[in-house]
Amino acid sequence: MGRIYNLISIQDLSRETIDLILDTAHKMESVAAERSNELSNKIMAVLFFEASTRTRLSFESAMLRLGGSVLGFADVTTSSAGVKGETLADTIRTVERYADIIVIRHPLDGSARVAAEFSAIPVINAGSGAEEHPTQALLDLYSIKKMKGKIDGLFISLCGDLRYGRTVHSLGMALANYDVSINLAAPESLRMKPAIVDEMRKAGLKVREVNSMDEALKDADVVYMTRIQKERFPDVREYTAVQGKFRIDSDDVAKMKRDAIILHPLPRVDELDASIDTAPQAKYFDQVYNGVVTRMAILKLILS
Amino acid sequence: MGRIYNLISIQDLSRETIDLILDTAHKMESVAAERSNELSNKIMAVLFFEASTRTRLSFESAMLRLGGSVLGFADVTTSSAGVKGETLADTIRTVERYADIIVIRHPLDGSARVAAEFSAIPVINAGSGAEEHPTQALLDLYSIKKMKGKIDGLFISLCGDLRYGRTVHSLGMALANYDVSINLAAPESLRMKPAIVDEMRKAGLKVREVNSMDEALKDADVVYMTRIQKERFPDVREYTAVQGKFRIDSDDVAKMKRDAIILHPLPRVDELDASIDTAPQAKYFDQVYNGVVTRMAILKLILS
Amino acid sequence: MGRIYNLISIQDLSRETIDLILDTAHKMESVAAERSNELSNKIMAVLFFEASTRTRLSFESAMLRLGGSVLGFADVTTSSAGVKGETLADTIRTVERYADIIVIRHPLDGSARVAAEFSAIPVINAGSGAEEHPTQALLDLYSIKKMKGKIDGLFISLCGDLRYGRTVHSLGMALANYDVSINLAAPESLRMKPAIVDEMRKAGLKVREVNSMDEALKDADVVYMTRIQKERFPDVREYTAVQGKFRIDSDDVAKMKRDAIILHPLPRVDELDASIDTAPQAKYFDQVYNGVVTRMAILKLILS
Prior knowledge:
The structure is a homotrimer.
Chain A: H1 15-34, E1 43-48, H2 54-65, E2 69-73, H3 80-83, H4 88-95, E3 101-106, H5 111-118, E4 123-128, H6 134-148, E5 155-159, H7 166-175, E6 181-185, H8 194-202, E7 206-210, H9 213-217, E8 222-225, H10 236-245, H11 250-254, E9 261-263, H12 284-303
Parallel strand pairs in A: 1-2, 1-3, 3-4, 5-6, 5-8, 6-7, 8-9
Helix pairs in contact in A: 1-6, 1-12, 2-12, 4-5, 6-7, 6-12, 7-8
């Protein structure tokens, strides 16, 4: 039921399990401040085959606040996996002997699932290829619930790169568990994959695809912005045109509901203009902290 | 006697000391599971001048399970030693002020010995050049003893690259302390150095050099396989020929004794075919865990 | 008063605060040996945008000896800050959610100050650009006080690269708080910036600029040597000439006072000949340890 072992895809989780994680995250708020020794005999291995600041440090902060220890690598070029051509399966079958849980980020789709299949200890997917980033989706849900008091009934706009951004894929699938209205605001070439749109519609969500930020901002309770990467565009002029359209500045914020919130998985480039950082709607840095308590909840539920 | 300070070469250890380490490793099995605070006021510095997953994480896991802390570098390019041309002696004379023990891996032969000479704190060699990897040899001995119940009286085949592989050098010298029969199975150009063969013979071991895996597998109690590196061969065709001969697949396993064990220091490439991973003889991943308890024993014996 | 929040520039500290840090460092000597749990619920983030062995490991050793935990990065290429072009302000506003204190090294002048402006948690400058390295200056002062029994009244020579070396800039400004006589010995092109010389003179210090080591060594109580970097010179012959002049060997040591001390922020190349390492005046490796207790004092004063 509420019992979690691996955390590979948001689709593996029932609404019940998601709610358990969010409730546990709420309880972790006081533990995060006070610190605990609950996991003092546990070791977390972080295997980061891709660069990261936020996700790795967020997991480490979560584990340390629960009294646990951390080992691993942040840079695959310093490991046998990078240098000596070891397979992922062999790396996992090795590292499972050193730790109690594995947190893995890897550039290939399906990698975290493969890791879990070979692992004798629980595996958490900290970002696999372009497809999934389930702990980000969970911290996004937690941020929405904490800041808006609920998830059901909200009007949520997902904006920017909806095609290659793994965070919006996981978040979209997570939201399919709730009774929400969704706006998808993306340039033509970066629209959400039909499979995920279908999933959300099949779950009964009202999903509308729009192609301007104006439509995404108007009436939204939550605006979830993402970064558009230059390298997705063959022609730099096309990138510039798109980038100029899918961003939020103070004029845009003025059109939003006063009690709306703006979230972003970060890092941002300029899709969130620095001038809006002090707006009451700007919640993307508070969202970072929610990542710590959400990951504390996940680690606690899996390990204790 | 049983007292250990540095651990630089397997040749520095008496049979008595080796046995003490293996006995202590056995005692560490329960401590590894439960965790202890025995070294909670100790800091281990890991100085890895060469890429590693297994050895570094294994030492870190061992230290954490004993309650200790870890600092250091996994990548010399982020350190003054790499960037600013500091000598090894100066790096050691610095790091000895930050920690209670140094674990060093370095590409140069003799580097760990130099480190120990300059260090005011104990030094453990985690792999120096092509010559020595004593903690690997100790975990190999521990694996043999744990899995076969004894070391004396066994028939042990060392296979693959016996010339450049530092693990087999250390293991060969370690086995000279025991009453075992040895098969050395290597391609002509990768045969064990005569000095080590002499050492083993002088110690009274029956050593036979063979050049096929068939002879190595037949009647062996322990088959210790190693990786043959492509870059050792000027001609890639020669490498391919050799590589095809010095590997183990399911047909080979069928020729082995039912209660024989296959060990490998890992990472492997394809000298151990994935099809044998589920064979009862395949013990190379269990061997990984033995590295944790063996290193716990070494850290405990040196530091407490 | 004695209360410290950030530590960005040595110029932000009063003599009173500096003395408090040095006194606390002295008290840390026994804590460093015994270890404490005083900061066991605190996390230190190390953000090293530049290579370092000494400073990072010294801070980590200090934090671990006080029972605290550490996370961060030693290599910016493994972080979003390096790879995804995140601004320093955004990195700080993220990391402040993961830790209780930030220790930052960054290649740009002013970077640590910027970090502190954006941070909701205390920031310690572990080296910013060519301008400042305040914790090094504090450990240098502590070394002088510990080894000479006092700072006031001493005759101190700062030697080598006084223009680009951030450690001598911070040390020069720190010494302006004391009643000392200063010799500045540097090649013409690497002389101390007039602003710092003026600062010291305005504070009442007797400052003399000399251009030979002989004048710097004679009568000095403290000789503070620094490394001259080849890349500062357009012409390698000029570098070689200068390097041959601004170094210390056994002949030079013979000209020094018997109770003088030689300090160096390390790493050294050959400005301190290895032959002098055993001279009674050579204190640069003991100085390393003083960095641990000084940083323990700073962490304790800020965090507890």
